[in-house]
Specification:
498 residues; alpha/beta; Rossmann fold; GMP Synthetase, Chain A, domain 3; 2 domains; 18 helices; globular
Length: 498
């Protein structure tokens, strides 16, 4: 068993960085700039002249992966000292919407950010709950394949697969599935093998992103006819991250069928951003002393040519920000693509509110992921429905019919009255977004339209684009109709349209 005394030691050792977050950030900034001076990027961006954040904003523009792709290609060709001194030890391979496959560097300096932050999240849980017993049973991390390929001299694979090679000894002895099973690329076949390997084990910690956790639970229940707590009586801790948990929570907990503790994390290939602080009721503790310097751009300015760039001490609670990273992996003013909101500043706790590119503003409403995700959760709770997955897209004007937002929903338990559900969902959306409300009052938009999808529709869609399993996520809203046209073209909607 992992001793609570060790958890206490680690919490005390890392406490300063969270209690003095602004000072920690200033220290990290200066360390990053000092090391960055020795790189091609640092020379091109006059790092020798950068003394503070103000200088940095003048010399280093915000960029996304497209903005660093040429540097990545140089690193892949074998060149050193491009973004960070030396060469990365890994590339975390991840998919992008415009760049295709992205290769995110992980260096000797940055690997600890991924490994030790995950460990710290578990240690905080042990320290604040006094429940270390999960370390005596089996644990599963639903992840990508740990098999790595080589790009030049650099090992390359999914982040979850890379991290799998660094799981500490006190957890590895109890880790499932086997390396062989975890290396299977085909998700349905891998899932079958995972079920076979775990179904008779004393599973106590289960970790993954919610959609794929649900698939694992469904497979176990289909095999046994039991709820998950009946299959695994000692199941204690569900670790989740990668997407907003709220739309999946009710269905997951119903599948579990008993009490378990929840631990939320916010990892990304670019860095481990935050984790649930078990000493708090809400929000994730921002990882302020682990090799990442943060900037924040008001979400309304993210597409401006010269947006406002705030450091940690300048933020305000309750406002949506795009999160910008400079890291000891050699990312500089890198637009992660996520939006967050601060719940508190002592310490700095956040919630993830969505993706920058996931919004609907086809008619000037600028509806964001946080709004649709919380709205469907509230409407489902009122109508005793369970949502498996959903996505929203704009429907343009046809003849005399007003445009609308179309919701494509796969229910596990349908609402008792679909028309009432649609009406309530529309009303909740109006309360959450004043522009959406005004457009309906002005007869520019009609109320939302709901299409019920056949079971397995989202599974089929993700399979069709080669993103079934692993860390892949369904976009919950889009400004185009690419996703929903798949459902329409493949006749996946049921007759019931609210």
């Amino acid at each position: 068993m992992l001793a609570p005394s060790f958890a206490k030691y680690e919490i005390n050792r890392t406490k300063w960085g969270f209690q003095h977050a602004v000072s920690a950030q200033k220290k990290i900034f200066l360390e990053l700039i000092a090391k960055g001076r020795k790189t091609k990027f640092g020379e091109e961006h006059r790092f020798e002249h950068i003394k503070n954040h103000q200088d940095y904003k003048l010399e280093v523009p915000v960029r996304d992966y497209e903005g660093i792709k040429n540097y990545i290609e140089e690193i892949k060709s074998g060149k050193e000292n491009i973004l960070w001194p030396g060469i990365p030890v890994y590339f975390a391979k991840t998919s992008g919407t415009t760049s295709g496959v992205k290769f995110i560097p992980i260096t000797r300096d940055s690997i600890s950010n991924h490994i030790f932050t995950a460990r710290l999240a578990l240690l905080q849980y042990i320290y604040y709950t006094g429940k270390p017993a999960f370390t005596d049973g089996k644990l599963i991390f639903l992840s990508g394949s740990p098999e790595l390929e080589t790009k030049g001299e650099i090992k390359t694979g999914r982040l979850s697969g890379i991290v799998n090679h660094h799981i500490p000894a006190y957890l590895r002895t109890n880790q499932l599935p086997s390396y062989r099973t975890n290396s299977i690329e085909d998700w349905p076949r891998k899932l079958d093998q995972i079920v076979e390997e775990t179904i008779t084990q004393d599973m106590r910690l289960i970790s993954g992103i919610p959609p794929w956790l649900q698939m694992y639970f469904d497979s176990l229940t289909e095999k046994t006819g039991k709820k998950i707590k009946d299959v695994f009586p000692n199941f204690q801790l569900l670790v989740h991250g990668g997407v907003n948990f709220a739309p999946y929570k009710d269905k997951l907990l119903a599948s579990i069928g008993g009490e378990v503790d929840l631990l939320e994390t916010y990892p990304a290939s670019e860095g481990f951003i935050a984790f649930q602080d078990y000493n708090a009721d809400e929000g994730l503790l921002l990882n302020t002393d682990a090799g990442i310097f943060y900037e924040f751009i008001p979400a309304t300015e993210i597409f401006d040519s010269h947006p406002t760039r705030l450091s940690l001490e300048e933020i305000k609670t309750g406002e949506n920000y795009a999160i910008i990273l400079s890291t000891n992996a050699g990312l500089w003013a890198y637009n992660l693509g996520d939006t967050i909101k601060f719940l508190s500043v002592d310490p700095y706790r956040i919630v993830v509110t969505g993706r920058i590119k996931q919004f609907i503003s086809a008619f000037g409403e600028h509806v964001i992921a946080e709004e649709v995700e919380t709205a469907i959760q509230e409407a489902a709770a009122e109508s005793h429905a369970l949502i498996r997955e959903f996505t929203v897209a704009p429907k343009m004007k046809i003849d005399t019919e007003l445009p609308a937002h179309e919701w494509f929903i796969e229910f596990d338990r349908s609402p008792y009255d679909r028309s009432l559900f649609a009406s309530r969902l529309n009303m909740i959306m109006q309360k959450k977004n004043i522009y959406y409300a005004d457009l309906q009052k002005g007869k520019i938009l009609q109320p939302l339209i709901i299409h019920t999808l056949k079971p397995g529709s989202f599974h089929a869609y993700m399979n069709s684009i080669g993103k079934l399993g692993g860390q892949n996520k369904v976009p919950h809203l889009s400004n185009d109709r690419n996703i929903v046209e798949y459902f329409i073209n493949n006749a996946m909607t049921e007759n019931g349209i609210a």
